[in-house]
């Protein structure tokens, strides 16, 4: 499992954020544009060649596998490949998740065309993806890892593409298990309710 430490300071983290963040954002826009474009066939073929060339340039030097979850010496996490919050992951919406003083976690975000399931609606698996992340981050206590053991969703009504909110809070802790509840909402209220059991794995117990 790739939890690694990188010997870099905050200015280097800021430099990398400023470098990679805009690249990820333009690729995210490219995904949306690819779904929604109605330009002519020749333009599609030209853009295809340009994107192929850009991809080949990035591939000229790359890591062997996924990004992993990296930490600085100060313990700041860089989950930059994460599918929901990753700074370098263009398929991440991305979510910015804030923690209230009482431990509740919240996020406001927009899901566009790339997250469609039924027409105009968010794919159910994407709802699960977003809720797994926010419930999982809520379950974390200190530097202990916590893995989703069970995630239960109730889709109360369809979730429209567009602006959404998610929130989660710890319901209770029983030994190595943390029970978290949360929801996904649109402007009219809750669309999906979630309950999760997050577990401190045996290999991380003292
Ligand atoms: C930065 C934050 C990011 C958050 C990202 C979102 C979170 C994720 O996506 S995590 C990835 C998805 N999840 C996984 O891949 C987990 C795969 N499963 C595993 O690794 C293991 O089965 C794991 C860790 C869940 C449990 O294994 P292990 O540590 O051996 O547990 P074990 O010692 O047998 O059981 C401990 C307790 O948990 C319970 N338990 C075990 N598995 C489960 C489960 N799947 N669901 C509910 N309870 C469970 C047991 O009954 C036991 O309870 P009790 O203490 O009352 O007897």
TrEMBL record:
<keyword id="KW-0963">Cytoplasm</keyword>
<dbReference type="InterPro" id="IPR006683">
    <property type="entry name" value="Thioestr_dom"/>
</dbReference>
<dbReference type="InterPro" id="IPR052365">
    <property type="entry name" value="THEM4/THEM5_acyl-CoA_thioest"/>
</dbReference>
<keyword id="KW-0472">Membrane</keyword>
<keyword id="KW-0966">Cell projection</keyword>
<protein>
    <recommendedName>
        <fullName>Acyl-coenzyme A thioesterase THEM4</fullName>
        <ecNumber>3.1.2.2</ecNumber>
    </recommendedName>
</protein>
<keyword id="KW-1003">Cell membrane</keyword>
<keyword id="KW-0443">Lipid metabolism</keyword>
<keyword id="KW-0809">Transit peptide</keyword>
<dbReference type="GO" id="GO:0016787">
    <property type="term" value="F:hydrolase activity"/>
</dbReference>
<comment type="similarity">
    <text>Belongs to the THEM4/THEM5 thioesterase family.</text>
</comment>
<keyword id="KW-0378">Hydrolase</keyword>
<dbReference type="GO" id="GO:0016020">
    <property type="term" value="C:membrane"/>
</dbReference>
<feature type="domain" description="Thioesterase">
    <location>
        <begin position="120"/>
        <end position="192"/>
    </location>
</feature>
<dbReference type="GO" id="GO:0006631">
    <property type="term" value="P:fatty acid metabolic process"/>
</dbReference>
<keyword id="KW-0276">Fatty acid metabolism</keyword>
<keyword id="KW-0053">Apoptosis</keyword>
<dbReference type="InterPro" id="IPR029069">
    <property type="entry name" value="HotDog_dom_sf"/>
</dbReference>
<dbReference type="Pfam" id="PF03061">
    <property type="entry name" value="4HBT"/>
</dbReference>
<dbReference type="GO" id="GO:0005737">
    <property type="term" value="C:cytoplasm"/>
</dbReference>
């Amino acid at each position: 499992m790739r939890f690694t430490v990188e010997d870099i300071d905050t200015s280097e983290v800021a430099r990398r954020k400023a470098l990679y963040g805009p690249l990820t954002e333009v690729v995210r826009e490219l995904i949306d544009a690819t779904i929604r474009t109605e330009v002519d066939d020749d333009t599609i073929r030209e853009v295809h060649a340009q994107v192929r060339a850009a991809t080949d340039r990035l591939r000229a030097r790359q890591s062997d596998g996924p990004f992993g979850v990296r930490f600085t010496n100060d313990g700041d996490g860089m989950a930059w490949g994460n599918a929901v919050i990753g700074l370098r992951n263009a398929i991440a919406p991305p979510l910015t998740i804030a923690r209230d003083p009482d431990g509740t976690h919240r996020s406001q975000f927009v899901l566009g065309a790339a997250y469609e399931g039924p027409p105009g609606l968010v794919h159910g698996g994407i709802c699960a993806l977003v809720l797994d992340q926010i419930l999982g981050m809520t379950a974390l206590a200190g530097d202990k890892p916590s893995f989703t053991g069970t995630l239960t969703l109730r889709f109360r009504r369809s979730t429209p593409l567009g602006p959404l909110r998610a929130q989660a809070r710890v319901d209770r802790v029983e030994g190595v298990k943390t029970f978290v509840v949360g929801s996904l909402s649109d402007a009219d209220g809750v669309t999906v309710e979630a309950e999760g059991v997050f577990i401190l794995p045996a290999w991380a117990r003292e």
